[in-house]
Design goal:
Shape: elongated
Structural class: alpha+beta
Distance between the termini: 96 Å
Strand content: 15-25%
Radius of gyration: 31 Å
Largest sheet: 6 strands, antiparallel
Length: 473
C-alpha cells in the first residue's frame, strides 16, 4: 500500500503506525511509518504548548523518539492495528496543555507480524464539551448519577463513599479510591473508597503513613499521559521499570490490574482516583467513564477544598492556630440545641502578665507567649475543644466528661504551663450534667477564673500592670 499517498489525502494531522505483533499476544515496537505534512509539522514545528523529544521527523522511527512512552497510545494502536478495531479518544495529556481529539483506524493488509493503523489527531487548546459528552448511554448515565450525587445536600464524605461504590461496581474492581494530596503538609487522605466483599485488599487508610512520596511519584509513572491503565503483566512490567517501589507496594498488596487518573483543576493536582483489579474486558468503558468523571470530580473537589479553606480562615485564630470566638459561639449554640443529653465541662484560661511581657520585652514576645499558651492547652485538650475567646483569654469545652476529670485537666494545665517561659494561667473550671446548660458553665467558669486571677495578682502585685476586671470594663 502507498501509505504516503494515503496520509496525504487526509486534511488534518495523520500518520501510519506499525505495531509488531508477538506470539504471546503482546506487542513489540511501535513505529511512525510516515506522516502527512500537518503531522510532520506537529513534530518539527510544534505549537508553543507542546514540547517534543526531537524536532526532526525520520520515517519508520519508533514513536518514543518523539514522545515519552505512553501505554494508552500503545494500547489504542494495538487494538486498531492488531485487533482491527476503530478507536476514538478525547484526552488531555499531562505533558501538554492541550486537548487531543484522536482516531485510530485499522489498515490492511498486514505484513507478516507487522500490523498497521492510521492515527489521526486534532489539537484543541480548550476542552470541547460536545466531544467530551460524545459517550455511550451507559457511561452517560453513570456520570450523570455522579453529578447528581455531588450536588446532593447529604454528608459530603458519605456522598464520596457512595460514588466510590457506584464506580467500583461499574469497573467490576476489587477496590476504588479517591485519594487527596496536601502539598503543603505532604500528607495524603482518603476522601472515599469502596472494596468488594470477597477482596483480600485492605483499606487505603492502612498505608497513609509516609505514603505521600509514593503518590508524588505517580506523575512520573503516568509519564505525561492523562492516566495509567495496567491491564496485564506486560503493562505491569512498564510500571516496574518506571516505579519499582510502587510496583513492589501494589503487587505485594495483591494488585494485578490498575487504572489511575490524576484529579487536576486549573493546573493544580488535587489527588488521584484509581481502581485495582478491575475487569480487563471492560477497560475501554472504564477509561471513558473515569476520564469524564475525573474531570467533573476535580472541579467539584476544587470548590470543596476552597470552601474548606475559607471555613478554616473564618473559624481559626491565625496567630495561635486554635479556633476563634466565632467558632466557639457556633459550637455553644449547637451544644445548647442538642437533643442527646450528656455532661459538659468548661475551662477558662486567661494569661497572667501578658501586658508586662508586651511592655517589657516586646509584642513579638507577647505573640510567642500566646502561641505557647495554645500549645499548652493542646497538650491537655483535643484540638477541636480549644478556642481563643479573644485577647489573652482561651476557653476549652469538653463534653461527656466527669467533674473529677475536668478538675484533673485544670491541674494538668497548670503543670504543663510551667514548661513554657513566663506562661501562667488564671484558670476557672465549671461542670454541668447537661450540655443544655453549657452557658451556665461558661458563666461560672468565667467567674472562677477571675477569682483565680485576683489571687495571683494579690501574690504578685508587680505583675498587676494592665490587669482590668473585664466584667466591670
Amino acid at each position: 500500500m502507498d501509505f504516503q499517498s494515503f496520509v496525504d489525502s487526509i486534511p488534518t494531522a495523520a500518520c501510519v503506525v506499525s505495531v509488531e505483533k508477538l506470539e504471546n499476544g503482546n506487542y513489540g515496537k511501535l513505529r511512525i511509518v510516515t506522516g502527512n505534512r500537518p503531522y510532520i509539522d506537529s513534530i518539527e514545528r510544534p505549537d508553543e504548548n507542546i514540547v517534543m523529544l526531537t524536532k526532526k521527523f525520520v520515517p519508520n522511527s519508533e514513536y518514543t523518539n518523539y514522545l515519552n512512552r505512553d501505554l494508552n497510545f500503545e494500547d489504542s494502536c494495538y487494538r486498531a492495528a492488531v485487533l482491527k478495531k476503530c478507536i476514538h479518544a478525547y484526552a488531555h495529556p499531562a505533558r501538554f496543555d492541550v486537548w487531543f481529539n484522536m482516531s485510530f483506524l485499522p489498515l490492511c493488509p498486514d505484513e507478516g507480524n507487522i500490523c498497521y493503523c492510521m492515527y489521526i489527531m486534532e489539537i484543541n487548546f480548550k476542552p470541547d464539551a460536545k466531544r467530551m459528552s460524545n459517550i455511550s448511554s451507559e457511561i452517560a448515565t453513570a456520570v450523570l448519577e455522579t453529578c447528581i450525587k455531588l450536588r446532593s445536600a447529604g454528608d459530603f464524605k458519605e456522598t464520596m463513599d457512595s460514588i466510590c461504590k457506584d464506580i467500583r461496581d461499574l469497573c467490576d474492581s476489587e477496590h476504588f479510591c479517591i485519594l487527596m494530596m496536601d502539598t503543603e503538609k505532604r500528607k495524603c487522605s482518603v476522601l472515599g473508597e469502596a472494596l468488594s466483599k470477597d477482596t483480600k485488599l485492605v483499606s487505603m487508610n492502612k498505608y497513609l503513613d509516609n505514603f505521600y512520596d509514593i503518590a508524588e511519584s505517580w506523575k512520573d509513572t503516568i509519564a505525561g499521559s492523562n492516566c495509567l491503565i495496567v491491564k496485564n503483566e506486560h503493562d505491569m512490567e512498564v510500571v516496574k521499570e518506571r516505579n519499582p517501589i510502587w510496583h513492589n507496594s501494589i503487587t505485594s498488596a495483591g494488585g494485578k490490574t490498575i487504572v489511575l487518573f490524576p484529579l487536576e483543576f486549573k493546573g493544580e493536582l488535587l489527588g488521584y482516583i484509581w481502581a485495582i483489579n478491575f475487569s480487563s474486558e471492560a477497560a475501554d468503558n472504564i477509561k471513558e467513564t473515569l476520564e469524564l468523571t475525573s474531570f467533573i470530580l476535580a472541579s467539584e473537589l476544587y470548590s470543596y477544598r476552597m470552601i474548606d479553606k475559607l471555613h478554616i480562615l473564618s473559624s481559626t485564630d491565625m496567630l495561635t492556630g486554635v479556633m476563634n470566638r466565632n467558632e466557639m459561639n457556633n459550637y455553644i449554640d449547637a451544644l445548647s440545641a442538642k437533643e442527646i443529653d450528656k455532661s459538659v465541662g468548661v475551662l477558662f484560661a486567661d494569661l497572667n502578665g501578658l501586658k508586662s511581657v508586651n511592655d517589657d520585652i516586646g509584642h513579638e514576645a507577647g505573640d510567642e507567649l500566646l502561641k505557647n499558651a495554645a500549645n499548652a492547652l493542646r497538650d491537655v485538650f483535643a484540638v477541636y475543644e480549644i478556642f481563643r475567646a479573644g485577647g489573652d483569654e482561651f476557653v476549652a469545652v469538653v463534653t461527656d466528661v466527669t467533674e473529677e476529670v475536668l478538675n484533673a485537666k485544670a491541674e494538668k494545665l497548670r503543670t504543663v504551663s510551667k514548661r513554657y517561659p513566663n506562661l501562667v494561667f488564671a484558670i476557672g473550671a465549671a461542670y454541668e450534667s447537661s450540655v443544655k446548660n453549657v452557658r451556665t458553665a461558661l458563666q461560672n467558669a468565667d467567674k472562677l477564673m477571675y477569682e483565680d486571677k485576683k489571687r495571683y495578682y494579690d501574690l504578685h502585685p508587680e505583675k498587676k500592670r494592665g490587669f482590668i476586671d473585664k466584667r466591670n470594663g
